[in-house]
Each structure stands twice: as structure tokens, then as C-alpha cells.
Design brief:
Elements: E1 8-13, E2 19-23, E3 27-32, E4 35-40, E5 53-58, E6 65-73, E7 81-95, E8 102-109, E9 142-143, E10 150-158, E11 165-170, H1 172-178, E12 196-202, E13 210-214, E14 227-233
Parallel strand pairs: 1-3, 9-10
Antiparallel strand pairs: 1-2, 3-14, 4-6, 5-6, 5-13, 6-12, 7-11, 7-13, 7-14, 8-10, 8-12
Length: 234
Amino acid sequence: MSGPNGGKVLLVAGLVGIVAVACSFGQEVAIKALADASVSDYSRTSMFGDRESLSVRRHDSQNQHDKAYLCFSLKDLPAGEVAEAKLKLRVTGAVQWQNYPVTINVHGIIDNKDWDPAVIPEATLNGNNAPRNGIANDFTDAGQTAENTVRVIGAAKFKSDELPKVVEVDVTDYIMWARGENEEYSKFAESDRDGIVTFLLNQPWPNGAGATVNSKEATGEDAFPPTLVVTVVQ
């Protein structure tokens, strides 16, 4: 879509309808999370989908984690090729170990067996029904290759004295795969089937460290929900 003087537009989907702003690059779409929730290995039947924050933490017990799940719909993206995609998270607090930065690893499910909020509503997601949720392994079959059903996409690193702030993780390859533009990214499927992608967040190391991230339910002047920003070129 062209804006004034032939410029491209910024489309903001899922926030307050769609807001168009003239830009000088391709079409950039900012998509609010369709659903998000934390799950906890400490209490695998507890549900946290109505909370204003997401907990991403590795507890003192090595195999006990708080992890977060985020769903985004790609159905409103315009036609064209994905040039860039970024996942943006507002981190409001963190517990770090010594002077090491806190890390949030971002994963994506690449075999189409991800979280469907229509089947498992946000309010009922827990440690037992969350897809690919493991204990000894942070996420079942997680790794960095096309042969892992849960693929490591990237990571955000920060220190507690830098917060609050919005962090960004490049997720371009994953979104390209979801749109059928990066078939080699997964050996299980050429693209995402339902137009909804799932991000899984965890804190890999060390024990005791972790972070708090705004959920889509966050309120207040500084509330910034998990947002997927995708640039599409015609």
C-alpha cells in the first residue's frame, strides 16, 4: 500500500485495528500477540494466561523452569516476500547471576505441532498441555538444525540495571519458513499450515537467573505487549 508521495505504509495489526503511517521502505506490519502465557515446572497444572507478565526463569533446581509461549497470526500480512522480521519484548525486571547478562532464548516449532489457542485457550495452557514442553530438556527435541522439531532462533541478552527496556530478536528465517519462503529451514514441513506461529522462550543458564516480560494483558502508560514486526517487500 502506498502512502503520501509514493511512500510505503506501516500497518499495525491487532493493536487498535490497523493504523497506516507513511514510511520510506517496504510494508512493515506490527502484530500484537494473539495469545501468550507462562508455564511452570514447579506447578505443571497451574495456569497463568491472565497475568500481565510472563516469567522466563531457570530456578535453583536444575530441571525446574518457568517458560513462556507466544502465538502470532500471520494472516493479515500483505502479499510479497519477507525482508525482515523481529520479535520485540518489553523486559521489566531480571535476576542475574554475578555480572553475567540474563539470556532469553527464542525458539520456534517447525513441524506444525505448535500451540493452537482455538484448541488450548490461553487461560488453560499449563505445563502439562503446552506443546513440546520438557523438564530435563527445556523443550523436547530443541536444537539448532532443520532436524529439530523445536529450533533455536535467536536470543536477547541484557543486565538488570538496563531495565526496563524493549529487546529485539531477529526471527526472519522462521517467518520466511512459515510463509513458504524458506523450505530448507525444516525437514518436517515446507511452511506453517494454519497461519499462526508459536515462539517458546526460556532462560538457559545459570540456575536462579531469569526475567519478567510484559504480556499482552499488560496495562499502564508503559505497557508494550509482545510484538512481531515484519517487513514485506512487493
